[in-house]
Structures are given as C-alpha cells and as structure tokens.
From TrEMBL:
This is YbdD/YjiX family protein. InterPro entries: Sel_put. Pfam families: Sel_put.
Amino acid sequence: MSGLVADGSRLASLRQRWAKFSRFCNGVLGADRYERYLQWHRSTGQPGEPMDRRAFWRHEYERQEKNPGSRCC
C-alpha cells in the first residue's frame, strides 16, 4: 500500500514541476500575454469589454512593428 502512496506523491510532484516549467516557458515566449492583459483589464477597472484574443494579438503585432525596441529580427 505504501508503494501506491509513494507513486502518487511522485506523480503529483512531477505534475507540479511540469506546471511550473510550462508557466516559465509561456512567460519567456510571451504566450501568456493575453492572459496578463485580461488580468490587468479586470484589476484596473477598465471601461468596456476587453479585446478578444484575435484583436489583442493584432494590436500587439502592430505595436511591435511601430516600436521594435530590442528584438532580434
């Protein structure tokens, strides 16, 4: 019985590490920008509805083209 508990806790630990790694990668790659935008929109009490995902990314790409900053390409 203790073997099952140990396997379960190892699996839970592995899932937690995978979740942390995924959040890290999404942060580095910028994949979580839309979620951060939604969080910002809610927390600051912005008027109106937030942009949908497609409109947000269109806006982001336009902003990046106008203000390239420090990027490789």
